[in-house]
Design a protein that fits this description.
The structure is a single chain. With 164 residues, the chain is an alpha/beta fold. It folds into 2 domains: 1-41; 46-163, Glutaredoxin, CATH 3.40.30.10. Helices cover 41% and strands 23% of the residues. The protein has 4 helices and 7 strands. It has a 7-stranded mixed β-sheet with strand order 2-1-3-4-5-6-7, with helices on both faces. Strand 1 (46-51), helix 2 and strand 2 (71-76) form a beta-alpha-beta unit. It is globular and about 35 Å long. The protein starts with a helix and ends with a strand. The relative contact order is 0.12. InterPro entries: DUF411.
Length: 164
């Protein structure tokens, strides 16, 4: 009887070990796949937005970015204008909020495709700005319509980044 119990115990341990080995190698393969996916995934889609807590268009803009796959961290900040100036945004370029993504600042209701170009091309600038609150910009309109002029800013001064 003891030999049957011992054999059954050894068999159970062997089967459990085999299942554990399969699970471990499967998890290892998943880790490798996730690591490869991260390497080819491209620029960050995580963005922080500092905004005036009473600004409804900032929430609409954040929703617009989330619908396009961004992970948005909304931070209420009544002093976002001061934060914008400290970040280097020219006073004339201050929008209704300040955002930061992948090492760049984004001031105003900049369309997602322009942000994606910024973090993909990685120009030697501090950020981009869409001054004011244009009625045809995301956050004010459901979708961008017409032409929006976005400016680049940084050590080299201010220049047109996109006019589309």
């Amino acid at each position: 009887m003891k030999k049957k119990i011992t054999f059954a115990s050894i068999a159970a341990v062997a089967v459990a070990g085999y299942i554990g080995l399969i699970a471990l190698s499967s998890a290892h393969g998943t880790d490798q796949a996730l690591s490869s996916e991260r390497q080819t995934a491209g620029p960050s889609k995580s963005i922080t937005i500092w905004r005036d807590p009473g600004c409804g268009c900032c929430d609409t803009y954040a929703d617009y970015l989330e619908e396009r796959g961004y992970e948005v961290d909304r931070v209420d900040d009544r002093n976002f204008v001061t934060r914008s100036i400290e970040a280097g945004v020219p006073k004339e370029g201050i929008g209704c909020h300040l955002a930061q993504i992948d090492g760049y600042y984004v001031s105003g209701l900049v369309p997602a495709d322009i942000i994606e170009r910024l973090v993909t091309d990685r120009p030697a600038i501090d950020g981009i700005a869409l001054p004011g609150m244009p009625a045809n910009a995301p956050g004010m309109a459901l979708e961008k319509t017409g032409i929006l002029k976005t400016y680049a800013f940084g050590e080299g001064g201010v220049s047109v980044y996109s006019n589309e």
